[in-house]
Design a protein that fits this description.
homodimer, 57% helix, chorismate mutase activity (chains A, B), cytoplasm (chains A, B)
C-alpha cells in the first residue's frame, strides 16, 4: 500500500516536472517573464478599452488648452514669429523643468509614459516617506520598447495643432498655457506610444503572421498587417462626436435630451472645432501610432 | 482775433483741468488705478460667464482624477491610513515642488491665481528669452485681496472629495494622480477665490448697500447681501448636468441625439457620480465662495 503510494507520487512528480518544463519553454519562446503571467494583463480588447478612454482625456486636454489664447510670447524667441518654437522659450523651459520634477516623483517608472526630454529618472525612493516602488508589468520586448516618435509629436503639436485649437491673442497666462500644452503632449504621447503594446499583443497572438515581414524588414507589409480601415474610421468618427459632446455649452434651461444643448450644426459654439479633433486623429495620431507599431515590430526579433 | 483765441484756449484748458480733477477724485473714491479703466474689465456678467466656464473645467478635472484609483501610498505617511494626508507624503511634496516651478514661470503674476504654499514668486524675467511681464489689471482692493481659504480647500479635497471621486485601489501612478490632484486644487482655488472679484464688483456697483454692515463688522448681514438662492440652485443643477454630459460614455453606434448615449438614470455609467459634483458645489464651493466674499468685504474699507 505504501509502495504503491510512493510510485504514484513519483509518477505525479514526473508529470508535474514535465508540465513545468513545457511551460518554461512556452514562456521562453513567447518572450514573457516567467515570474508572472503578463499575457493576461494586456489583450487587444483591454488595449482598445484603454485607447477609447484616452480619447476622452485627449479631447478634454484640447478643450482645456483652448481656454487660453495662443499666447505667442510663451513660444517665441526674442526674434518673435508665431510659428517659431524657440528652444529657449518659456514653454520649452517649463516643460523641461516640470518633466524633471515628474521624473523625480516616479512618472517614468510606468512603461506607458515616455518623457520628451532625457532626465535623470532616479525617483525619490530614498526619501523616508516615499511609497515603495510599484511593480509595473514588464510586458514589452526590451529591445523594441525604445521606439520613440516624441520629436514628431512635439513638432506637430507646436507647429500645427496649437494654432488650430487656440485663438490669436495674449492674456498673459503663459505658464498656465504651457502647463496645458504639457498635459496635451503627454496625453498624445501616451496614446501614440501605446502602439508598442498593441504591436506586442498582435505579435504574441500570431507571431507567424509577422515574422517573415520582420525578417525581410518589410515596413510596407507590416503597415498593411497592422491597419484596419474600419476600426480607424470608427475612431475618427467617435473622436469628432466626443469633441461635440464635451465641447458643447451645457445650460439648465435649454431643451433637448435632459436639458442639454446639442446643436451639431452650430460648429462655432463648440470649445474646440470637432473637425480639428477628427483631423488630429486622421492625420497625426493614427498614422504615428501605426508608425510606432511597425517600428516596434521591426525591432521585435533583435 | 489772436487774443480771443488765447482766451478761449485758456477757458478750455481750465475746463479740461477741472474735468481731470473730478475724474481723479472719482477714481480715488472707487479705488481704481487711474492709469486704466478697470471698471470696464470686470462686470457681474463677465464674472458669471467666467465662473460658468470654470465649472466645465472643474468637472473635467474631477473626471481626469477619477481615471486613477485612490492610490493611497501617495498620501499616507509610513503610518498608513487612508484618510491621513501626511505633510511628507509624495502628493504634498509633489505639489510643493510643482508650485515652486509654476511660480518661477510667472503663474502668480495673475491675481486670479493663489498658491497653496508660500514660494519665492520672483519670476524668471532675468532670463534672456523670458517674455516681458504682462500687465494684469489690478482690480482688487490691495488690503482685502489677501483673503484666503486655501487651507480649507486643501482639507476638503484630501479629507472628503478625493474619496468620493476615486475607487479603492493602487495602480502605481502616484505622480500622475498627484498631478491631477494639483490641477483639481488649482481649479477649485481659482473658482472659490473669484469671490474676491465678485465682492469687489458688487461693492463698486452699490457701495452704500455694504458700507454700514462693513463698519458694523456684521458678517451675517453681509452673507445675506451676497446670497442669491435662485442663482445658487441654478449653479448646483447645472454642475450636475455637466457631470452627466461630460462623464458619459460616447459611442458612435449608440442611438439618441446625434448618436450620443445619454441615459440619465444609469448613474453608475458616469465617470464621476453627478451627485458628487452637485454636492461639491452645494456643500463646499458655494459656501466657501460666499465666505471669501464676506471676508473680502470686511476688509474692503481697511
Amino acid at each position: 500500500m505504501r509502495m504503491a503510494s510512493l510510485r504514484t507520487d513519483s509518477r505525479e512528480l514526473q508529470l508535474l516536472l514535465s508540465l513545468s518544463l513545457i511551460l518554461c519553454i512556452i514562456c521562453f519562446i513567447s518572450g514573457c517573464d516567467s515570474s508572472e503571467s503578463n499575457n493576461t494583463i494586456f489583450t487587444i480588447d483591454s488595449l482598445r478599452d484603454s485607447l477609447e478612454k484616452q480619447e476622452d482625456f485627449i479631447v478634454f486636454c484640447l478643450i482645456e488648452r483652448a481656454r487660453f489664447p495662443h499666447n505667442s510670447p510663451a513660444y517665441s524667441s526674442s526674434s518673435g514669429g508665431r510659428r517659431v518654437m524657440s528652444s529657449s522659450s518659456l514653454a520649452e523651459l517649463f516643460v523641461r523643468e516640470t518633466e524633471a520634477i515628474q521624473a523625480k516623483f516616479g512618472r517614468y517608472q510606468n512603461p506607458e509614459e515616455l518623457p520628451f526630454f532625457p532626465h535623470d529618472h532616479t525617483p525619490i525612493q530614498a526619501a523616508a516617506e516615499a511609497p515603495p516602488p510599484f511593480k509595473f508589468p514588464q510586458f514589452l520586448d526590451p529591445a523594441a520598447s525604445s521606439v520613440n516618435v516624441s520629436r514628431d509629436i512635439w513638432n506637430i503639436y507646436f507647429g500645427d495643432l496649437l494654432q488650430l485649437i487656440t485663438t490669436d491673442g495674449d492674456d498673459g497666462n503663459y505658464q498656465q498655457a504651457a502647463a496645458s500644452d504639457l498635459v496635451c503632449l503627454q496625453a498624445l504621447s501616451k496614446r501614440i506610444h501605446y502602439g508598442r503594446f498593441v504591436a506586442e499583443v498582435k505579435f504574441r497572438d500570431s507571431p507567424s503572421t509577422y515574422i517573415p515581414a520582420i525578417h525581410a524588414k518589410d515596413s510596407e507589409t507590416l503597415t498593411e498587417l497592422v491597419t484596419s480601415k474600419a476600426v480607424e474610421e470608427t475612431v475618427i468618427e467617435r473622436v469628432k462626436k466626443k469633441a461635440e459632446v464635451f465641447g458643447q455649452t451645457v445650460t439648465v434651461d435649454t431643451g433637448g435630451v435632459s436639458g442639454v444643448a446639442m446643436d451639431v450644426n452650430a460648429t462655432n459654439t463648440y470649445k474646440v472645432d470637432p473637425s480639428v479633433a477628427s483631423k488630429l486623429y486622421a492625420e497625426w495620431v493614427i498614422p504615428l501610432t501605426k508608425q510606432v507599431e511597425v517600428d516596434y515590430l521591426l525591432h521585435r526579433l533583435d
